[in-house]
Amino acid sequence: MKAVQQKVAVLGGGSFGTVIANIMAEKGIQVSQWMRNAARAEEINRLHVNSRYLPDYPLSESLCATTDIEMALKDACLVFVSIPSQSFRSVVQLAKPFMPAGQRVISTTKGIEGESFSLMSQILKDELPDAKVGVLSGPNLAKEVALHQLTATVIASDDEDLRTQVQSALHQSYFRVYASSDMYGVELGGTLKNIYAIAAGLSAALGVGENTKSMLLTRSLAEMSRFAVSMGANPMTFLGLSGVGDLIVTCSSPLSRNYRVGFALGGGKTLEEAVESLGEVAEGVNTIRIIKVKADEMQIYMPLVSGLYEVVFNGAPVKEVVKALMMNEQSSDVEFVLPRDAV
Ligand SMILES: NC(=O)C1=CN([C@@H]2O[C@H](COP(=O)(O)OP(=O)(O)OC[C@H]3O[C@@H](n4cnc5c(N)ncnc54)[C@H](O)[C@@H]3O)[C@@H](O)[C@H]2O)C=CC1
Ligand SMILES: O=C(CO)COP(=O)(O)O
């Protein structure tokens, strides 16, 4: 595999941007990490730590942070964008003047832009029509990657060179990168699982049993696959790291911010309190609303999303919603993931 010799840019100063930037810096790749917060950039450059997002985790001394986006992007052969979905487009617009035609740009963001129902790869294609686009997604809790826990991820793109370059740039003894050409499916998997992580956190707070957890996880996978296949994704993708893999990790770990929002809701907090106490981005909250609207519009059967929507946004009592889900007409329930029409 051809090693990446040139410079790489990472846009975003949060947990995942920092972890991705650091993997490559540790390998001796020249990495420029752009962020808007000057104090944080200085801290990374001087003290080699990002105390706001990854406290107690020493960063490579060669990782270079900057608030100058032009400088960050200059001569970069790969650009990773690790910005929450609500600000993703505006940051890409800011970066656009400094990217040459054919620039390879990779989103690591697991969310949807509400008004346009665009995944981040679509935003990249809209804003940078000449760029080569990829998405990175998988079971990748930032704090575990930071601790060098053995981890795998997926790079998905139509562009084979991009896939190979990203594999080469990120591959480490503790980090394996698998390639996929189903960009849409990989991206949807990472985005949809956030919804079910909120449901898992909520049910954990309520003290449900192992049977219930298993039912929830498995039916979540069926539901997210059904939605994604209706939108054109490959169902097999959902049996991989960016589908069931990411669903398992996010639905089982308090390190997941979406799980923590659900747990707080289950503990009696309001949505505002749950989000406020998190102090970081939980993409799943907006994703529930966006997917509910889309599923209704396209008449895709998503009972878990509908139930969660009622609990989270309309204050419906969890017990009532769960009872209604369990008492649903049985004859429509088919336990099958393939083929396409049976999901
Ligand atoms: N943290 C994790 O374990 C993982 C996160 N992701 C995804 O990566 C994306 C980013 O997540 P994190 O880095 O974890 O988020 P985070 O909440 O830790 O950090 C977000 C960063 O984006 C910056 N930001 C927000 N709006 C901005 C703007 N307009 N201009 C410049 N900077 C802006 C913030 O200042 C912050 O540095 C999310 O979509 C998340 O789903 C993916 C895999 C793992
Ligand atoms: O996507 C993640 C792990 O793969 C991180 O999930 P959270 O955004 O819920 O922390």
From TrEMBL:
UniProt family annotation: Belongs to the NAD-dependent glycerol-3-phosphate dehydrogenase family.
Catalytic function, reaction form: sn-glycerol 3-phosphate + NAD(+) = dihydroxyacetone phosphate + NADH + H(+); sn-glycerol 3-phosphate + NADP(+) = dihydroxyacetone phosphate + NADPH + H(+)
Lineage of the species this protein comes from: Bacteria, Pseudomonadati, Pseudomonadota, Gammaproteobacteria, Oceanospirillales
EC number(s) on file: 1.1.1.94
Function: Catalyzes the reduction of the glycolytic intermediate dihydroxyacetone phosphate (DHAP) to sn-glycerol 3-phosphate (G3P), the key precursor for phospholipid synthesis.
Native species: Neptunomonas antarctica
UniProt keyword terms in alphabetical order: Cytoplasm, Lipid biosynthesis, Lipid metabolism, NAD, NADP, Nucleotide-binding, Oxidoreductase, Phospholipid biosynthesis, Phospholipid metabolism
Recorded GO CC terms: cytosol
Protein name listed in UniProt: Glycerol-3-phosphate dehydrogenase [NAD(P)+]
Active site per the UniProt annotation: 193
Residue intervals of the Glycerol-3-phosphate dehydrogenase NAD-dependent N-terminal domain: 7-161
GO MF assignments: glycerol-3-phosphate dehydrogenase (NAD+) activity; glycerol-3-phosphate dehydrogenase (NADP+) activity; NAD binding
Binding positions for NADPH per the UniProt entry: 15-16, 36, 53, 110, 142, 257, 281, 283
InterPro entries in UniProt: 6-PGluconate_DH-like_C_sf, 6PGD_dom2, G3P_DH_NAD-dep, G3P_DH_NAD-dep_C, G3P_DH_NAD-dep_N, NAD(P)-bd_dom_sf
Pfam family, one: NAD_Gly3P_dh_C
GO BP: any one term: glycerophospholipid biosynthetic process
Chain positions recorded as NAD(+) binding sites: 12-17, 142, 257
HAMAP family: NAD_Glyc3P_dehydrog
Superkingdom field: Bacteria
Boundaries of every Glycerol-3-phosphate dehydrogenase NAD-dependent C-terminal domain copy: 182-323
Cell compartments where the protein resides: Cytoplasm
Sites where the protein binds substrate: 110, 257-258
Pathway noted in the entry: Membrane lipid metabolism; glycerophospholipid metabolism
Subcellular location, principal: cytoplasm
Residues reported to bind sn-glycerol 3-phosphate: 110, 138, 193, 246, 256-258
